[in-house]
Specification:
By secondary structure, this protein is an alpha+beta fold. The protein has one domain: 4'-phosphopantetheinyl transferase domain (Ribosomal Protein L22, Chain A). It has 3 helices and 5 strands, in the order βαααββββ. The protein has a 3-stranded antiparallel sheet with strand order 1-5-4. α2 crosses α3. The longest helix is centred in the middle third of the chain and has 18 residues. It is globular. 27% of the residues are buried.
Length: 108
């Protein structure tokens, strides 16, 4: 399945309790940049895209976005899923918008 999401960066700035949405690792990564909210918005969009593409119920706090050695996003599911999944994903952002796409395939 394919999932896609887009979000305005200003919505992420308004979050009152960001640690309910983002892991410590995600917050630390984003805070390395001059505008961390752009990166957090990308993480939010990717989490939503993954939720839309999954065939099992997940909530946003059960997904963590990490990065490989080249900086590409990697989705880490923080709960035990019945089965294995291959998740391919991409994030794009501008100063005011972030969007993400996820392709999720169940591996038997």
């Amino acid at each position: 399945m394919i999932g896609c999401d887009i979000i305005e960066v200003k919505r992420v700035k308004k979050l009152k309790v960001p640690n309910r949405v983002f892991t410590l690792s995600e917050l630390e990564y984003a805070n390395k940049f001059s505008n961390p909210y752009v990166h957090l918005a990308g993480f939010f969009a990717l989490k939503e895209a993954i939720i839309k593409a999954m065939d099992v119920p997940l909530n946003i706090s059960q997904i963590e976005i990490l990065h490989d050695s080249k900086g590409a996003p990697i989705a880490n599911i923080l709960v035990d899923l019945k089965g294995k999944y291959d998740i391919q994903c991409s994030i794009s952002n501008l100063d005011e918008l972030a969007m993400a796409v996820a392709f999720v395939q169940k591996i038997e």
